[in-house]
Every structure is written in C-alpha cells, then in structure tokens.
Amino acid sequence: MSHAPSIRPFVPSESPPSVDDMSPMRRNNHFCAIGLVVLLCGLCFLSTWNQDLKRGWREWPASHFKSPPEYVSTLTSIETTIAGSELVYGFGLFDRLYLRSGTLYVVTSTPSNFPLKKHIIARPLNMGPGQDLDPTDRELQFIHPSDASKILGEHAIIIEGSSMIVYDTDQFMNHFYHWWGEIMLGAWRVSSALRSTATLAVDGTQPFFMSRVLLPHIFGQEWKDSPGLNAGLMRAAFPSTSIENADHWDDLASLDKTFVFERAMLVSRVAAHTHKLSQSWRKMISSTMVVNVSETFWEPLRRTTVQNVLGYLPQLDSHGVVVSPSGASEMPVVTYIMRQGSSRRLAEIDHVNLLKALRGLEWSGACQVHAIHPEKMSLAEQMDVMARSSIVIGVHGNGLTHQLWMPHSPRSAVIEIFAPEGYVHDYELLARNMGHQASTDRITTSPNLISSGFLKHYAIWNDTVKSFAPGKWYEYLYPSMRPQS
C-alpha cells in the first residue's frame, strides 16, 4: 500500500505570533490556510485509499457503464402502438402498454388499428370444454387519450426496456415442449422480425431478448417442469433476464399507480389459438408462422444456449461429422430417443428391431448411434448428445423438443414415429422453424430413406414415410380446415 508523503516541519527563525496577537483579517487567513492544508491532506489520503480499493477489487468492464436511455415521457396521454407492421395473435408486441391495478390499457384514438381483444388476451383460466375465456375489461381496456388522465392519472412510472408478459395459467406452461417449443420459440420468432441479422449475435455473444419475463398468474415455481429443463435453459439462454411470478404483478397492483412498459410482448395461449392456422394445426405457435424471419433466426439463440450449458459449441461438417471438439466423432451422430417406460411407446419387438437396425448401421460405418433415455440424464448430458446429432429418431413425445439444439447440416433430420394414420403438428412445426424440413413432397416405403439426404422432417407409419415440402402440410385429419395462403 502506498502512503501519503511525509512533510518536513518548517522551523522558523523566530517564534510566530500567537493567534490572539493577530489582527482579525490575519486570523481569518490563518484559519483558512489551516483548513486548506487539512483538505489537501484529506484528498491525498482519499486518492491513495481509492487506488488501494481499486487494487483490491476487480475493475468493472467499460460495457457495464451504459449510456443513459433516451428520454421516455411519463405522460399517460401518449398513445400505445404496435411494434412492427402487424400484431401477431397471442404474441402481441406493443410500445407503451399501460398497467394499473392489474389491468392492462391500450391508449389509442384509433382502436380499429388493433385486433379484437380476444386475439390479444384471454381470461386467466384453464382451457377446457364450456370454459368462457373471452377477455373482459378486467384484463384489457382500450381508452382514448383524452380519457387517460381520468383513468390512469397524468403520469405513469416507466418500466424500461422490453418485457414479456405470459398471461397464462400453469395448465400447459410447466412442460418442456409448451414452454420452449411454443412460448419461447414463438416469442423469439416475433421479436426477431424486428431486428436485423447484424444484431442477432451470430458471433456467439449474448443475443438480445427481453429484460424481464412476467408471469402474472403463476405462483411460486409452477412454470418449471419436473425435469428442470425450462428453468435451466432459460438461465443459460438469457442469464440477464429476470423471471417474476404473481408476487411481482401483485406488488405493482398494490401501489395503485400507473406503469407504462416501454415495450411489452403480451403472450396468451388462448388468443394465439384464435388464428386461422391454429384452427388447422391446433398449436399455439401457429399464429407466428406468418411472420417473415431469416431462415437462421433461431441459430444465435441455439449457439448461445449450447455454449453456456456445455462450455463449448460442437461444429459439424457437410457430412454431419463433428469436427470440433477434435475427435468427437468420425461418423454422423444418430440419436434414438427411447420411450419404452412411457405410455406412448413402440411395441417391444419393434423397439428391439429398431435398435438392431441402428446398430447394424453403426457397425457398417454409416453412423454413430446413441440410444438415450433423456429423463435419466442431466441437462448437460442431454445437450451434449443433441448438439452433436445430425439425425434424431423418436416416438412422438416431449424429447423431440430437443431438436431446438441440433446443429445445422445438409443431413440434419427429425424422424417422428406415429401410430398408423395418426398425425399431430407439434414437432413438424419445430422442424420447420429449425430448418429441418422437407425440400420435396414424398410418400415412400424406400429402405434408402436416410441416405436420400433431402428429407428434413418425416413421419413414420409402420413402413410408410410421409413428409411435406415448404408451403405444403398434412391435411387429411382436418380436410375442411386447410391453411389458407
């Protein structure tokens, strides 16, 4: 530690006069000089102490000290607008969405610019037959700017940054597919449409997302799935994003003050299902499929999540071989997700025969096979396998959500096994978002399917394979509800 320099005392040739002997002005100058010396010594000490502190504590990066945000008015008469060209049903993105006493407000002089409330939000009740889920004024109101001050007061408290409000119960939320394959994938797709490719962190740095996720109707840890995938992956993907439950929402309501979200995405499963595509595909994410995004919109988030979970990012060549980390595989990786312990599974003889066939391919040098029970593996172990896999095979089920972390290669594919004549769109929609989708239409019984190379998602009905090109869909289950272009 450095010390303040020693000061050699001054020894005068004769004794100075006492303070009492000085004139008033000279006495004041004397006290002023003493005070100045004391101040200078104190500043020197503080400077040295500060330098010592800086040696004892880490230097904060310059990026921590951000420029102050642009000024945002607190006036409640400023109108709410739709962020982007069009509001997506169930994934509405707003600038200046107001909140008071638990009720959301859209301040607008032109309500016709917005879709009906039922396309934006719903009553926070579980979905079920006969359940009235149409939103009321308790959930959302449209008010004119001239009425804003009477209802909201003159000024609002600003909630800075971007907020994601998931206005659902825990009925579907605490499920890996429904959280990541619908809520998060849909939200990322919609928000990606507002950002240029340059801002999507393709270099592997932290991608931008919401500052906070608000769960107004979730108590405690109800949003988390029992295997722990939802929460762990959220912390890996968005380590700076806070996740707040009903307590936070109730705290805001109890203040009886008006808040305004700078930008807010209002997510509602029921509202998303009012879109015409959802009437055919029966999936929450259907409404987001009309949003135009880059084919690689998910890749920055995939890379960041894999990197943060594993500490490295597997890289594949054009043949699907893992080339980094070095020596990870000499052949493309094929992963079979086994469900033999669940109610939806293969007949045991078919399971055994599939394993034998896959092992035969491995012994022939065509691929490296992993047969896994994800529920018996840690999050990192699951991620490690999926981030290396070129092809994933499994009976329709939650494990196929892991295709979100598969790397892209010309051979990447998802093989989904259904009961004959059965079909649901859950994992096909994921495949289309990930780019693991068919490039042609084909129905075949070809034994050379895996080597054909251009089919990205296909359904298996015993010995029949079905796949659909971009813009074409399975339509036999609901022929009267074919998606309209």
List keywords for this structure.
eight-stranded mixed sheet, elongated, disordered C terminus
How would you describe this protein?
- Helices cover 29% and strands 18% of the residues.
- The chain is α/β, with parallel strands linked by helices and 485 residues long.
- Strands 1, 2, 3, 4, 5, 6, 7 and 8 form an eight-stranded mixed beta sheet that branches. It has a seven-stranded mixed beta sheet with strand order 12-11-13-14-16-17-15, with helices on both faces.
- The longest helix is centred in the N-terminal third of the chain and has 33 residues, at 24-56.
- The chain starts with 23 loop residues before the first helix and ends in an 18-residue tail after the last strand.
- The model is unreliable at 1-19, 24-69, 197-205, 438-455 and 477-485 (pLDDT under 50).
Terminal-residue CA separation: 73 Å
Question: Element order, helices and strands?
Answer: HEEEEHEHHEHEHEHHHEEEHEHEEHEHEE
The description of the largest β-sheet is:
8 strands, mixed
Mean model confidence by pLDDT: 82
Number of alpha- plus pi-helical segments: 13
Using the CA coordinates, give the radius of gyration.
31 Å
Strand coverage percent: 15-25%
Strand tally, please?
17
Q: Give start-end ranges of low-pLDDT stretches.
A: 1-19, 24-69, 197-205, 438-455, 477-485
Helix content: 25-40%
Structural class based on helices, strands and sheet pairing: alpha/beta
Which geometry do the CA atoms define?
elongated
